[in-house]
Each structure stands twice: as structure tokens, then as C-alpha cells.
Amino acid sequence: MAIYLPEGYQSQSPQTFKNIAAAQEAMVAGKVIEARAVVCDSEHNLIVDLGCMKGIIPRDECAIGISEGLTRDIAIISKVNKPVCFKITSIKTDGKFKPYAILSRKAVQIECHKNYIEKLVPGDIIKGKITHLEPFGCFVDIGCGSISLLPIDAISVSRISHPRDRFNIGQNIFAVVKTVADDGKICLSHKELLGSWEENALKFANGETVAGIIRSVESYGIFVELSPNLSGLAEVKEDVVVGQQASVYIKNLIPEKMKIKLIIVDSFDEPYQNKSFEYFIKEGHMDSFRYSPQNSDKIIETIF
Q1: Is the C-alpha dihedral spanning 216, 217, 218, 221 positive or negative?
Q2: Which among 22, 68, 15, 187 has a CA at the least distance from the CA of 117?
Q3: Mean pLDDT value of segment 284-292
Q4: How many CB atoms lie within 10 A of CB 57?
Q5: What is the pLDDT of residue 204?
Q6: Phi, psi of 238, rounded to the nearest 5 degrees
Q7: What span, in angstroms and rounded, lies between the C-alpha atoms of 209 and 249?
Q8: How far apart are CA 100 and CA 97, in angstroms?
Q9: What are phi and psi of 222, to 5 degrees?
Q10: Residue range 249-273: average pLDDT?
């Protein structure tokens, strides 16, 4: 299966041409090019700097659905100063005999859908790029500006209050296709790639004092995240606030109950959060994922 990467996934540096001959060669070959959009004009055409000349993506060629009114123009405006992919469809000359190129981002997206996205099935592991963060989840570019939803409850096993607790806009991630709707819309998941309870618990041992993040404060205890897919319950402690960093003592790891008993040594306000991930799987396909240990009293499993 052909792979079409999210826009800007590999590099933020624009692709330019030294001369018109090189651009013509890319046009004839039907090459997918990526460069930065520098202007959106008053008619909502995107202007791209190709180095040897200006490139214009006409409004209707900026994205699938624009000409039909299914995609709003904000999808064009928001691409300014960001990488966009496109094909060169023609090279023309203006009234001053200065060359410029006509480009199509829509053509690349159609090709991406036909050769890649429409062939994805639940369980496929793909590359993505975070484009927007909302309280209910985040939107992810899964190829050439084609966007899918990653719901907040599918980001990690450890619960978060907002996707910004886990991601930054523009961050490259891996994701797994959770569902494919009848209309072709893809919904993603992420937590299955971050390891099982046992895989995460192996990084810790009884008697250690480790770093954590306060995720929930309840009357019966305080939930502390040790890794995105692993949390423990600490004893009640005063002046502890959700979102704080913490140092916690591991009192007991109980695999059969998927529980970790903790004692909070200290909690404090710090702006830093590690938003990188240890992915236990980054490619291929999974038919199922079991989070719970084999000897656990409870089975937590995802079937794709």
C-alpha cells in the first residue's frame, strides 16, 4: 500500500526549485511536492513560494470539498505559514512574461484517499500529525491534509482533562485506526500503542520514589499518572491539585488487580510536562490489544 504522510511530517523546510526546468520535470512526473504557503489572497487562493517562481493554488483546488461547499474556507486560511502538499498542473506566464505555476492540493488529496486512506481498515497503525486540540479530542492529519478525529478517551489509559495535557499542535504521533464509517470517515485511537499495564509496570518497582502527575483528587484517594498508560492511587494528602507534578513512593504493585498503591512525597507546580511517548508498536496491524495482565481479575481488551 502506498504511504502518504501528513503535511509537514518529515520536515518543516520548504521544497523549492532552482529553475523552471526542474519544476517542469516534477510536473511531467506527477510528483507530490510540499512547500510552505506564504499568502492567502482576498479570493482565498493560496500562494506558495517555489523558489524559481510563484505557485498559485486556486481556491477550489485547495482542498477536497471546497468547490461543493462541504469544506469551509477557514481550512484554506489556516494553512498560511504551514507546509502544504500539491502537484504542479501547469506553468504559465503573466502579462510581464514572468512564469508562475498553477498547483493543486485537491489532486493530491484525491490520490491519497484512493491509494491509501480508502484501503485502511480497523487495526492498521499509521502516522499522524496533531492539527487541532478540542475538549472532546484532537484532529489528526493522517495523510496530505486529510483529517481524522482522535477522541479524548482514546488518547491514553490514564485520564486527562484536555488533549493539551498530552499533545502539542504540530506534534507527530502514531495512531491506530479504530473505526471506518460507511461514509469513509476514520476515527482513531492511540492508547493501544502505549503498552499494556504489565509492560508499563515493569518500568517500576516496590520501594522506588518516582515522578508522577496528579490527574484526579477524590475523597478516597488521589490518582497519580506514572506513565500515559499507567496510574496509581495515593493516600489522601492536603493541598494537592490536579495537574501538579509529584514525587511518589511506590508502596505496592498488584498485577492481578491492576493496582498500584502510592504515597505522595511532594506535589508542586511546574510548567514542564514530557509530551513524548514510548510507543510499544509503531507499524503494521493489530487485531486486538489486551491491556490487563493474564492473571488479572478484570479483562480490558480492544478488538479491532
Answers
A1: positive
A2: 187
A3: 97
A4: 26
A5: 97
A6: -75, 155
A7: 4
A8: 9
A9: -125, 125
A10: 93
Separation between Cα atoms, residue 273 and residue 237, nearest integer Å: 22
CA 16 to centroid of chain Cα atoms: 26
Q: Bridge-partner residues for 103, per DSSP?
A: 88
Alpha carbons 193 and 171: distance in angstroms, whole number? 16
- Residues near 231 by Cβ (< 8 Å), separated by ≥ 6? 157, 158, 159, 215, 223, 224, 225, 260
DSSP string, 49-102: E-BSSEEEE-GGGSSTTTTTTSS-THHHHTTTTSEEEEEEEEEEE-TTS-EEEE
Q: What would the pLDDT profile of 102-117 be if each residue is shown by its tens digit? A: 999 999 999 999 999 9
Query: In sequence order, which residues have a C-beta less than 8 Å from that of residue 104 and are 6 or more positions away?
Result: 57, 58, 61, 86, 87, 89
Count how many Cα atoms sit within 13 Å of the Cα of residue 6 in the half-sphere of its side chain: 22
pLDDT at 274: 67
In sequence order, the β-bridge partners of residue 126 are: 175
> In this structure, are residues 188 and 178 in contact, taking their beta carbons and an 8 Å threshold?
yes
Indicate whether this model's pTM tops 0.70. yes
pLDDT band at 275 (very low <50, low <70, confident <90, very high): confident
Give the cell for residue 271.
Answer: 510548567
Length in residues, the chain:
304
What is the structure's pLDDT at 2?
A: 63
